[in-house]
Amino acid sequence: MSVEKRVVKKYPNRRLYDTATSSYITLGDVKQLVLDQVEIQVIDAKTKEDITRSVLLQIILEEENGGSPMFSYEVLTQFIRFYGQAMQGMMGPFLEKNLQLFSQLQQKMQEQSRAIYGDNGMFNAKMWSEFLNYQGPAMQNMMSNYLDQSTQLYLDMQTRMQEQAKQLFTGFGFPAYPGSDKKDEGKEG
Question: For this UniProt entry, which segments traverse the membrane (predicted)?
Fold first, then answer.
């Protein structure tokens, strides 16, 4: 059963209209809806096109231009390099799964914190800030190790798939396919 999304219409004057509250909202309000885990869909009021992704990217751009950016130059250039590559279709699901795992880790840590310190949000925020100041490098190392392992598993899977494909197509003698030259050499002599 799918959850019905909250529809926000974007008008040509760039104003956003929340159909649930029958009022105009800001990009900051859309961000808050996302933070509140409200499923949204942004529709261009004139063309009826779904523009949710572009609005979400606009929010990310504003966040990146604000305080401390999440994406380094290297990450952004790698994103750009993946477009048009054979692996582009796999990059999104890979990132999505890793973000889900990271979110689950964060949620588990918050639950453990609540179990120990209760719902004192201010104390929790201060405690996590101090914890990450001291343990941040260890956490980053742990996440880096996890990503390295994920990458290695993926590369191993890719190698196995290539080997299976070679075994499957060995007898067909495709031009410029490794192994087809040996059959051709035997015919010439």
Answer: none
